[in-house]
Structure formats: structure tokens, C-alpha cells
Amino acid sequence: MSFVPPPYPYERLGELKFLAEQHEGGVIDCSIGTPIDPPPALALEVLARGEDARGYPPSAGSPAYRQAAADWLRRSFGVVVNENELAACMGTKEFVASLAGYLHLRSPERDTVLYPAISYPTYAMGATLAGLRAVAVPLVNGVLSLESIELSDIRRALVLWSNSPSNPTGFLDDLSRVAAWGRERGVLVASDECYSEFTWASTPASILQHGRDGVLAVHSISKRSNLAGIRAGFYAGDEDIVAYLRLVRQHAGCMVPGPVQAAVAAAYGDDEHVRIQRDRYLGRLETLSKALNATGIAAPVPEGSFYLWCKREGLNGWELAAEIAELSGLLVSPGDLYGDAGREFVRIAVVQPDERIALGAERLLNR
Predict the structure, then answer these.
(1) Using one digit for the tens of pLDDT, what is the confidence trace for 64-88?
(2) Which CATH code, of 1.10.1740.10, 2.40.50.140, 3.30.450.20, 3.40.640.10, is assigned to 41-268?
(3) What is the distance between the alpha carbons of residues 135 and 119, in angstroms, rounded to a whole number?
(4) Separation between Cα atoms, residue 227 and residue 147, nearest integer Å
């Protein structure tokens, strides 16, 4: 039977949106993690100049792009990488979706992607698109239960995906433990770190702090700089893996546009706009967490990320999402969009302006 793509997860929210729209003042869409706050002005100025628009841009990223990313890794995590250990990608979703297929070409005897049982859906979809197996790894207290992975799956594994801080749960994992597990078993660990700068329970962390062999760290400009629309990021780590991916992705025509590369280099050179954004997100998380908890919905401020992972005893995620829509006009995502193990939860992305988040909180408290 031919492959039939499943409905895109957020296209299933029509009925919930209708409920939320009944409020005066309309829906407050917190379903998708789409940044709405201002990007750094310097990056937009560089983008507007359109430099390097005529010729084909380097697939691996311009020297300025890679240097800016490497400098940011050093400032943020104390990690020093050389030019052969880092390359550009066209937004990390594209990288996540294509990684398994490219790795399978290199290691055809392996056919399995390991990923967190509650997670960003593209980890599993990347396996599906490559005609491979996707095997969910259970979570215990929000972290990967590595000891539960079957030996037969380990032997077939191309990659283990880690995501810390997690989308959707906000939990932090022990990246030293995850890196060591992969090295001991010869399984590449790909660490999705796009929310690293929005870590609340500790200092930001990267798997690269525990060595480069057998690991990749994946980073995006989308979240840190509110530049999701320009589709750019980078991956860094194991030199042999990076070299292989750089070449195969060059053959595939994976190129971040030249003007975008210049803008991203400017954005990675500035940390002040990220500090401002951290304050925004933390304030919104605290505002909604307080209001939701007051209504009997368990909504703790997460260890990291800009999502609330919420539940109410006796309701599944769709029922709770409907209740929240009716009470407050907030459109949120039922947890089973991120795996069956999340079916009792909802995810709330605090990506609306402060005044809209405050309106949602007010509606909840005055229900």
C-alpha cells in the first residue's frame, strides 16, 4: 500500500478553535510554538540589505555564519568547536526530518530511530519518511528511560534523539548520561537543543559539554531570536558525522539563502535580545501557571522551554483542551499530538503578547 501522510497535527484543532472564538475579544492561540515577539533589529537590517543574494550560498554555511555559531557555543556553554565540526541547516525541522534517511544510506544494516515517547512529532516522522522503524523510548519523571530500550532495538539503532529542555514537557535530561549511553553502544545521539537558552531550573546545557564523539547538537535561530520565518540553524559535534552530512546535504541542495546566512550571523552575535526574551517568556509562564493552578489544573512552571504541560485528574487532553477553550478562549494542544503517552495532558505555548496572556489568565480567574 502506498504511503498516505497523516493529517498535520495542528489541523485537528478546528473544534477547539471554534469554542475559543466564542469569547469576546476572540481566541488566544497558544497551540503552536510560533514566536511573535520582535527579532533583533540588527538581523533584520542585514537581511534587508540582501547581501550574497546573487550567487549560490555555501551549503555548509559561510565562514561568518559558522564562526558566529561557534562563538555563541563558546559563550553559552564553554564549548570550542572547529570549522569541521559545525555546519548550517535550513531550520532544524528539515534537519530532524531528513537525518534518519541520510544516516541509513551510510549504515544500511541499521533501520531504527529511537526517540522520546512524548516529544516533537518530527523525530518519529523522520523515520517514517525514510521507510524506517520509529521506536519510542519511555520517559520516567520526564527523562529518557535508557535502561528500558530493548537490546534488539539498540543493535538496529541509527540514532537516539534527545530533547532538553523538552518540547512539550519542559523537563531537563542528563545530557552526560545520554552521551555516555550512546558512546558505549555505538549509537549516535542527536541532541535537539533549540530551547537551551530558555532554561529556568539550571544554567543552559549542551551535550557538546561532554565531548563531541558520537553526538550531534542541533540548534535553531527560530526560538532564541524570534526568526522562525527565515528557516535557519546549525548542527555541531562528531567531526566524521558532520563531514558526511555536509557532503550528502550539499548533493541534496540544502542551502540556507545567502542573505539569511548574513542575518543569522548577526543574530548569533547578539545576546541582549535573548535576555529580554527570556524575561518575557518566564513572566508569561508564571502568569498562566498561577491562573491555571487556581482553577484546579496542574500547570507547574517548567524546568525549561516556553510551554506549560498541564493536566486535570479525570480528563484526557482533548477534554481538558475543550474546557480551557470554553473557560478562557485559550487554544491549546492536546498532549496526544506528541505521542500516546501524553494523552492526559495539554501543552500551552506562551507565544502570545503579554496583554493576551493576561487576558487569558483573567478569563480563567473570573470564570
Answers:
(1) 999 999 999 999 999 999 989 999 9
(2) 3.40.640.10
(3) 12
(4) 38
Sign of CA dihedral 356, 361, 363, 364: positive
**pTM check: above 0.70:** yes
Pick the CATH number of 9-30+272-365 from 3.90.1150.10, 3.40.50.2000, 3.40.350.10, 3.30.360.10: 3.90.1150.10
Q: Are strands 215-220 and 233-237 parallel, antiparallel or unpaired?
A: antiparallel
278 contacts: CB under 8 Å, gap ≥ 6? 197, 198
pLDDT tens profile 208-230: 999 999 999 999 999 999 999 99
C-alpha cell at 189: 545521539
Q: Is the pLDDT of residue 1 over 60?
A: no
Q: pLDDT digit string (tens) for 135-158?
A: 999 999 999 999 999 999 999 999
Alpha carbon separation from 218 to 94, 95, 145, 316 (Å, rounded) = 11, 9, 21, 32
Cell readout for 52 is: 550574497
**Cα separation, 321 vs 345, whole angstroms:** 9
DSSP state of 8: P
Task: Write the DSSP symbol of residue 191.
Answer: E
